[in-house]
Structure formats: structure tokens, C-alpha cells
## 1
Amino acid sequence: MCGIVGFTGNNEAAPILLDGLSKLEYRGYDSAGIAVRNGDAEPEIVKAKGKLKVLKEMTNDGKAVKGACGIGHTRWATHGEPSTVNAHPHCSDDENVIAVHNGIIENYQELREKLIKKGYTFKSETDTEVAVKLIDYYYKKYLGTPVDALNHALVRIRGSYALAVMFKDYPGEIYAARKDSPMIIGVTGGESYLASDVPAILKYTRNVYYIGNMELAKLTKGAVAFYNLDGEEIQKEMKTIEWDAEAAEKSGYEHFMLKEIHEQPKVIKDTINSVLADGNISFESVGLSDEDMKNIQQVYIVACGSAYHVGMVAQYVIEELTSLSVRVELASEFRYRQMKLAKNSLAIIISQSGETADSLAALRLCKEKGVKTLGIVNVVGSS
Ligand code: GLU
């Protein structure tokens, strides 16, 4: 879940987008990209793996990309490795629809297959590209407005999202939608701003609108209109942000740890979402069949540091919900102990970075002994 920014107004968009993205850097990301339109000309899309610095260098701090309307993104990969191809923005093949997305589309595989049957092809491994092409599909099928196309697509999408979308036929306009992922809009002095988090637009305005769950917004220069899923216009109240920039980064919490504690329900939901298929948990996508799961009798949770403490909590939950016996092991001890590891065990390795040396060594040991393994990490594409 990373960063989204959008701008439409009279000034050059690219430097504003890059500046906004830099204010969201503290959230972490693996790649970044922007799409900018100059009037009704074809949009320019620039993306790069790695730090925002790379994107800034490629675009001469945004000065090389002309246009007063654009969207930008910093990505924290959930579907597909961190790479330039998988970085956002994504677009339909004819660049009719261009979008950035935060969150996870749970039923992306099913939608992808449907779109392939309709003749769509896919360049990236992301769930986002599926959403973009679904919007394009409905836009062309019903020949309606962008709001109609978004509504048709959104009722078919399951999961969480904050989306910022541009349509070829609507220069100078940005459409936004959200469900379970934050998004705010600021309007000031003939210009409109969009962001997934307050710090990105605080420099320009403190007067913001919060888009509600399952609502849409249309941003034009200095104005915004909101819609419900039936396409009816709805009224929203403007709110004033009282926090300073530092407090805004912490969403108003006193410190980051407190913010992270409050984010736990959402983080757990997002993690479980990644293995949900049609409302059921399925580990097929990570190589564990239902048969494999049924044969498991013993679970080892192996981790270090705070991930180990997460494992302790998970132990109680798994024991309460299943008849499995669960042991939590410190990875640094696990790898040196002379333990009898039964083949019908599952080792769950938890690591924020996906690179913790002792946890990786424990993982290799389990694989050598033929024990089934499952990794829970925060970095897609890590070891
Ligand atoms: N699921 C999307 C992806 O993997 C968006 C990730 C994000 O929120 O940055 O590209």
C-alpha cells in the first residue's frame, strides 16, 4: 500500500507530483512513476524501479515532462516483483485509460481471464493492470461517461483500492475511487490536488475532502464533484487539517509505533486477502494444495525479533481455530538445534524484509528436510 498523488491546474504537473511523492517516501516503496498530459496530447508516462531520485533524474526534476494534469505513484509491490514494467501508472493498450492504484484486487485472476477472452493482453504481473483494462472494457462497452465505466468496473472488483484514473477523451480531468484505502482531495486557487495521504498536499492546502468508501470523485481545475455507485452526484463537506507536517506523517498519532499499532487490523486483513479466492483461503497460489494442507499436523513458526513476537500471537490464534499443534521458534536457535522435523509439518517463516539471515537459513534447512514452507514477508521479490 503505497503512495498516490494527482494534480490538475494551471501549473506544470510533474514537479508537483514528484514533490508530493517525496512527501510520501517515509512509507517505503520499491518503484515510482508518473503520467502527465499536456492538453489533449498523448500522455507521457515515465517509470523507474528504485528510488524517486532515479525518476527525478530521468525527468530533470519533472521539468522535462510538460503538462498541467497528471498522476503519480510510489509502489509497494503485492502482485509481481518490483520492476519498471510492474511500476505504475498502467494503461490500456491504446492509452485510453491510465491509472495508479494502491491496494489489492482479490479477484484479479478471474477478471484477467475474462479480459483475455475479450482480447486483452497484459504486459505486467500486477492486479492493477487488470483493473485498468476492466475500466477500459466497460468504458468502450457502454459508451458512457468515465463515472459510468468506473462504477461498472468497481462493482466487479473485490478487494481494497485507491485509484486515480485519467481518460483520453477527458483531458484535464482526474477520476478517483476508493475502498478501504485512503484518499484525500484538496482544492485551492483554481487547482486541484489528490493524494493517498495528507503530507503530500499539505504544502498547498489544509482544506480537504475525504472520499468515502465506494465513492467516486471527478477533479477538474479548481473543482471537484463526488458521485455514488449509482452515478448520482453527492455533496461532501470540506474539512480542515489542523496537523503540522510532522504530525500528518503519523496520521495525527503521537508516534509511528502508535500509528502502526492502530494499523494492525488493516495489515492483517490485507495479508489474509492475498490468499483469499472466492471467499475461501487457498494456498494454491503459493504452491500448497488443499491436500498438502490437510496432511499437516505440526506447525513451526520461525522468525526473529518482532516477527517472532507476531509468531507468538499467531500461535494462539492457530491453536484456537484448528486442531494443529504449533511451536514458535527463534530462527537463530532453530537452525542449530538437532530437531526431528516430521515431514507432515509446515514451517511458517515470518520476516519483514524477507532477507533475515537466520530466518533464511532456517527456511533452507526445512526445505532440505522436505518440510513444507510458507513465507510471510513485506517485500515481494525478496529471497
Ligand atoms: N497491488 C498493486 C501492485 O502490486 C499496488 C501495490 C501498492 O499499493 O503499491 O502493483
Note: Residues 9 and 209 are 17 Å apart (CA to CA).
## 2
Amino acid sequence: MKDLLTLKDLSKEQFDALFDRALELKKRKKEGIMDRPLEGKSVGLLFNKPSTRTRISFETATIQLGGVSIFMNENDTQIGRSEPVKDTARVLARYIDCLVIRTFSQELVEEYASYSGVPVVNALTDMYHPCQILSDLMTVIEAKGSYNVKVAWVGDGNNVAHSWIWAASTLGFELAIACPEGFDPDSAIMDEALARGGKITIFRDPKEAVKEADIIYTDVWASMGQEAEQKAREASFEGYMVDEALMGLAKPDASFMHCLPAHRGEEVSEEVMEGASSIIWDQAENKLHMHKAILDMLINRKL
Ligand code: CP
Ligand code: NVA
């Protein structure tokens, strides 16, 4: 495959190949072996929203694999002066070997991909965050031995949730989503994922969703671009904080995950963030290893 835009079209074999490569690259790095499959290659990053983890891990991944990263935003380029996407995409592809984009519209990323001669990677849109769920599932494999687990999503039916839904529908693990009415995942995505046989259920009560869960996952209530809704959302999501009491209703060895950045005292308590069941720092680290796997496999056409 050329691009990574959603997780919808990734086969189980492609998921597994990415997990295997990321785990292998992580192991080799820890052994002091520096693989350089991106020697002589450059990766462009076009980010129209803020980022700490995704940007720095993609840039570091590129450099550690022997390549060079080039960070761009709209206002430093002619994109901000309305050069058409179809022109920018074709020009950039004559220079760089991969384009990683973080922006608002999923359609924009797809337009870049359709005109770009080199791989395009979605590093978060309002609709999806595919790279996040790939590194999260790598973390689940490390923590639980496989992805055949029950994941409970507690919070907004947002971009991260949408990517979890596609992963669950292809890989067959159980996904329980607890969200208030009005904050469900996109209904077209849910319908299609269920039609594909996904074991995905929506609950209103977080206590119901977390029963027998191996992983409790949450994310901010107001995503980037929804800042004006912050106060109203805090009211709508009352009772959805992941705290010790909620963790206590899941399996005794359940782990807590969060893509970060987190808002302590809103979607998660300080105690859970810092507690023994939290695997958020491994989760954040694995973005580096998974992004290496994504870049290597797309640029070197191994996927
Ligand atoms: N999880 C994540 O994508 O973090 P950043 O917004 O810092 O990249
Ligand atoms: N749902 C969040 C994820 C941040 C990594 C957002 O889009 O802001």
C-alpha cells in the first residue's frame, strides 16, 4: 500500500507486519543496533495543529533511521498563500520520500495522497488518528501478550475512537465505548464496522463498559479545534472521569491508557495517571518505534 490515511483498509496481515517491525526495531535499538533504512531519504512534516509526541517521534524516527526530516506549516510555505493542494502535493513528491500531515480535514489528507507520488501519512485529522492506534496496540501486545483483549473506551466518540473502531473491526478484539448521548462515534463508521463483524458496543454508563476490560482508555473531552466547546463539554461528560473507583470495576490487572496530552481532573484523575496500572509512558515511547516501522515499510514499499 502507498499511504496510511485511516486504518479502514489495513488488512490483519498488514497490522501484524507493522507490529512485528516496530517491536523488532525497538528491540534492536535497545541492543544498541542502529538500523538505517532511510539513509539518503527525507520525510516532510506538514502540521496545521500543535503536536508534541507525534511531531518529535516522527522527526526522531526519521533521524535515527538515517534520514532527514523537514518540518513545514502552512504559513511558512506558499500553501498559506493559496497554492492549490494538487500543485503542492506534486511538487513536494519530487523532493521528499514521504509526507506526514496533521490537519483538520480528512479530505485534505486524502487529496494530498491522491496527487502525491510518495507515501502520505495521516498524523491526525478531525476524523482519525491511525498512527496513534498502531502504537497503542503495540503497547497492548507488550502489556497483555496479544491484542485479543477487551478495550473500554471512556469518553468522546472522537478521532482516536474512530481509529480504534476500525482496528477492532479488522483484528476482532472487543471494544466497549462509553460516551454520553450526543457524543457517539460517527454513525456511518459504526454501521460499517458492525457490518464487518466488529464486536463493538456503545454504552451510556462507563461502569457497564469497563466490566471485564483489560484496557481502559480515555482522551480529552474537547479535541483540537473544539476549544470553544470546552465548558459545555465538561458538563456533558460529568461522571465520565476515569478514576480509581472506575478502574476497580475492570479486571484486577487492567491497564490505563491515554494518547496524551491529558487533562487531570477532567477525563482522568491524578491517581490513575500516576498509578501502578498506568502504562502511558510506554505508550508514548512506542510512538517512536511504530513511526519508524511505518516510515520504513511505506518508503521502502514493504507493506
Ligand atoms: N498523542 C498525540 O498525538 O500527541 P501530540 O498531539 O503531542 O502529537
Ligand atoms: N482527540 C485529541 C487527540 C490528541 C492527540 C485531539 O484531536 O485533540
Note: The pocket of norvaline (ligand 2) is lined by residues 124, 158-160, 219-220, 223-224, 259 (CB under 6 Å).
## 3
Amino acid sequence: MNLKICHMYPDVLNLYGDRGNILCLRRRLEWRGIDVTVESAGIGARPKLAECDLVFIGGGQDFEQEVLLDDLHSGRDEEVKAAIADGVTFLAICGGYQMLGEYYETYDGRRCGFIGALDLYTVGSKQRMIGNYMFTCTPESGGSTVVGFENHSGRTRLGPGVQPLGTVTSGFGNNGEDKTEGARFKNVFATYSHGPLLPKNPELCDFILKTALERKYGAVSLEPLSDEAELAAHGEMVRRLIG
Ligand code: GLN
């Protein structure tokens, strides 16, 4: 088996070690003897997303999100929408997550039209939502507890066309009000969780890998990995957050 991963905008959407998610995805495949290729697709690149199995988009500041708008609307937005509709697995973090929605409106009222692949929108707020946080994934997304770090001014509101990735148990999540965190639509996993997300949350990482592999090969069972260090880091954050 093999998996092709595309890392979109690594040159501008690369906050808080988000590229560590690519390393984690790669290692957890290689440790199981599954071949993996990673294509980095910065501004100006023309990756063929339809030929990818998993697309990763990291987070970025308001400025970076505006920098890539021209490139996004030069046709990459339509390609992302088509790939999502076709079931390609996506993992999108914070700014990358917001970008999949209808629009992002900055705190001072500048509205950036985004991809419109997911039924959601984001409005910047004066109060930034910052800190270590924790949420529980829905059963459809594996039901695992996730620990992470969030830093965003955007408050994201989900429309009826998407489900949350999970429910916040400590911290802000999508908007600090409705206890939702992230979004799920088809094979898209979107979250505010920086950190990077995946190394301290091996169960979620494997769920995402399984989703991508099963779209390509049908039913797949992933060989368990030891995960002592990963689970020790996970447990330490749970203790810090809820004692
Ligand atoms: N600029 C966006 C916000 O502040 C996303 C931030 C991020 O990716 N950490 O909400």
C-alpha cells in the first residue's frame, strides 16, 4: 500500500509547528511499512489534488490568509472543492480550516471570500482565543479525546451542512460559545488545534490515516504502534487541563 500526501501552502500557512503533522502522518505510515510520498505545494504550485489521497493545510495569520487569496482564486479553490466532493481526505488547521468555509471577515471588517467547500463562515473578534485546550471527537470521528493549542481571533459558525469534529471540554473551540470544535464534512477533518495536533493524539492520527487508506483500498486494519511517548505527552496535557 502507499499514500500520496499534498502539503498545501507550507510557505505561508505554517504556524505553531503545524508542519509536524506531516512528519507524524509520514512516520506512522512508514512504521507500518506503508509507502508515502509528500508533495509540497506553495503559492504558484499546481498540485493535482484529485491524484492525492490526503491533503494537509496548516494555520496562518490574517495577513498570510490574505496573501494567498489571489493564488487560491486562480483555480485552486475549485480544485479543492472538487477533491473534497470526490472524497479526498483533508486535514485543515485553524487558518487552513477557515479557508475551506465561505468567508473570513477580519475584526476590522475586511471580508475575504474563501473556498466555500464547507458550510461555515468565520468572523474575527477583538478577543483572541488562546491556550491549551481539549475536546472529545464525535463517535463518527472515532470518539477520542484530543489535546491541543489554539490561537485565533476568528469565531467560526457551522451551518447545517457540516458536523463538528468534536465537543470542547476545556478551552474555546470554534467560537467560545457553542462548545463545538472543528468541522467534519465527507472526509474533511478541520480543527483549530495547533501544536502540532497529531503527535500527541495518535488515535486521531490513525483514524485520519485509516480514512484515507480505506477510500483507496477498502477495509484496512492498522497494526497497533507502541505509542508510549505519544500517550505520555497526551496524558500530561490532560492532567494539566482537567487535573
Ligand atoms: N488568522 C486566523 C485567526 O486569527 C487564523 C489564525 C491561525 O491560523 N492560528 O483566526
Note: The pocket of glutamine is lined by residues 15, 59-62, 65, 94-95, 98, 151-154 (CB under 6 Å).
## 4
Amino acid sequence: MKPISKIAKGIAPSATVAVDSLAKQMKADGIDVIGFGAGEPDFATPDQVKVAAIKAISDNQTRYTPAAGIMPLRKAIAAWMKKEYGVEYQPSQICVTSGAKHNVFVALQAICNPGDEVILPAPYWVSYEEAIKMAGGVPTIVQTSEATRFKLTAEMLEKAITPNTKAVILTNPSNPTGMLYSRQELEALAEVVLRHDIYVVSDEIYDQLVYVGEFTCFATLSDEIKERTITINGASKSFAMTGWRIGFAAANEEISKAMANYLSHSTGNPCSVSQYAALEAYSTEDDLVGKMQLAYTRRRKYFLERIAKIPGLSCLEPDGAFYIFMNIKEQIGRTIQGVKINSSADFAQALLEKGLVAVVPGEAFGAPGYIRWSYATSMENIREGLDRLEKFLAE
Ligand code: PMP
Ligand code: GLU
């Protein structure tokens, strides 16, 4: 048989999805595992959003829609961007997709030629690297460290740029580290972006989940920056709507048109019922996120207090999102529960098998030596999970 495509062969499965599926399967098999793998809100979708979806079904809003989403939703998202960040987009500049993950994919398809380099600061969310490759691009990984709070600096960006650089991906606040860029840090990056005339894919899906500092939408920095920025956001995290699969991108007219063309040939359109649900989430005056923000704030605080008391582990205090990015480098080389730990992947594997706690190893994010915990789970699970971690480490 002839070989399958080289690009397809080079794509690894998503480690976050894999850990989550494994933990769910173990649970279904009756194993008492606690999952900290997937970054998925544990809250129910707000009632009024569900009601809007039920109404859409009753009203027979169950047909194909325009590829980049129904006009009322694109208008509501443009109005939401204006209300939240004061940035102006025409509805035609908003592309609604089946989840923000698909928008990352389509955005990269829209801007990359084969061989174009896309700068990706590590630690990075697992899907970017593969999405760059699927677009024929070449990921240029820039390793950051705790010294810059895992953030890309203007100097690092400058150094990574070559004549083939097409774009840089920024995640603010970050998955997996939870770090938030200050306005000054973004302005310094913006200066380099403009000087080299590259695009910015700014993934702001955790914009509503910030506990320390103030979030800045990259596209608001200047008109020139707005022209070169594809903002990625969506309903999954802010409104606890992961399963509805609604994300959006805001970009210049040329890019949004190219993305809409891609969508018209791929998914056709995002689910019609989900679009009506998202329309409610993006147009309501009610506060849908406050309660969740408060719960995450408490969990984050508890997590940090507990970690501070466990020898041989550490983590920087995250500013936003719902992740703890734990440094486990001191554990490497140890034998824990009879298992020799040679890497963070070994640690995560042993913690799952012996401690019945599922976390994602840093290798998945281009950051060996770390493990990621999602605190989008109940306080009870967090308490028990950390008890298990302590027990695991002690024996
Ligand atoms: N970007 C980041 C940084 C994420 O963590 C996620 C998590 N799923 C996504 C995009 C995609 O979100 P979704 O496809 O559920 O909208
Ligand atoms: N983005 C979430 C995570 O990082 C959900 C899983 C995924 O889509 O990667 O865990």
C-alpha cells in the first residue's frame, strides 16, 4: 500500500485529550482515579444558555447556517469585544467555528505557506505545534523559563525571527502556565512584531479567568497591531460550554474571508443550536462568569498553600486560567513507589498508576520537568488529589 500523507504521519495525538480519556475510562472501569488532566470547567452551562438552545430546537433552528456563523452571533461577538475591550470589529471580521481549537487550526491554514516559520513560546498548549505542522508551517520553539515567568520577551522574539517567520503565537493568560502578560510586556512584543511585519495569533480564551493583574487584549494595542492580529477566543472556558463547540476568531477582512472560505469547505458551519446558545451567552447583560471566577480563586489559593508545604515541589503563582504548572525537577532520579522516575512523563505515569491521580506531563507542552494540574474540578477532588500526591511522594 502507498504511504499515508507525510503531514498526517507527523501528527501526534493530543496528550491533554489522551490523559482525560484515560482517566474517564479508568473511572468507567470502576477505578477511583481523580482527573486533573483536561482543562475543562466542572460547572454546568448556565441555565439561560441551555434555555436558549432548547428554544432554538423548538423554533427549528436546525439547518445549515452561514459557514462563519449566523449574523446575530457574529454581531453579538463584535459588540462583546467592543464592550469588554473597546476594540471595533465588523461582524464580517468575526469567524465562529466548532470550538476555538478549530479556529487555531483554520487561522494557521489561512496565513501559512509551506515552510513558513511560526514562533511558539514553550511551554505551549499542546495543539499549537501540531496545528502549525498541519498548515505546512514549521514550529520555531522558543524555550522560556521561570526566570521570565514563562513569558516570551521582546529580546527572545527578536532573536527567533528569520526572513521565513510568518507569525508568533501568544497565549494570554497561558495554558499551561497560567501566566498573564502585562500591557508593557505586550507593547514591547508589539514593537518587534511591527518592525518585522509578522502576524500574531493571540489566543485569549482564558481572558475572563484572571485573578492577579489586568488582562490586555493584544489587538487593542494599535491599529497596525489589530491588522496583524488574529484573536482567538470562545465560549468553552468563559461560559462552561466545552461540549457545545463554539469558538471565534477576530481578524482583518482578508484573513477572516479566507478563514470563512476554509470553513465553508470543511465543517460547513458550527452547530446551529450551539450558535443560538452562544448568542445568549455573548449578548446577555447577566454575569455568567462571576460565580465560576470566585470558585477558581478559592481553589487556586488552596492549591498554592498546599504545594508550599510539600518539600521537593514548587510552582510559580499563576495569574489566570485554571492551571497549576508544577516544577517536579527534584523528583527526577528518585525511585517512588518502586518506580524509577527519569522524567516528568514517568512521574505522571507513576502518579496515575500508583497514586490514582491523572495530570498532564510537561513533555506535552514542550516543558519537561513539570506537570500540569487543572483546578477546574471540585475542592473535594483537589483536597483528595493533593492528599494522594503527598502519600505518593512519601512512600
Ligand atoms: N486554546 C487554549 C489555550 C486552550 O486551552 C483550549 C482548550 N481546549 C483551546 C484553545 C480550545 O478550546 P475549545 O476548542 O474547547 O474552544
Ligand atoms: N484545552 C484543554 C486542555 O488543555 C482541553 C483539552 C484540549 O482540548 O486540549 O486540557
Note: The chain has 15 helices and 15 strands.
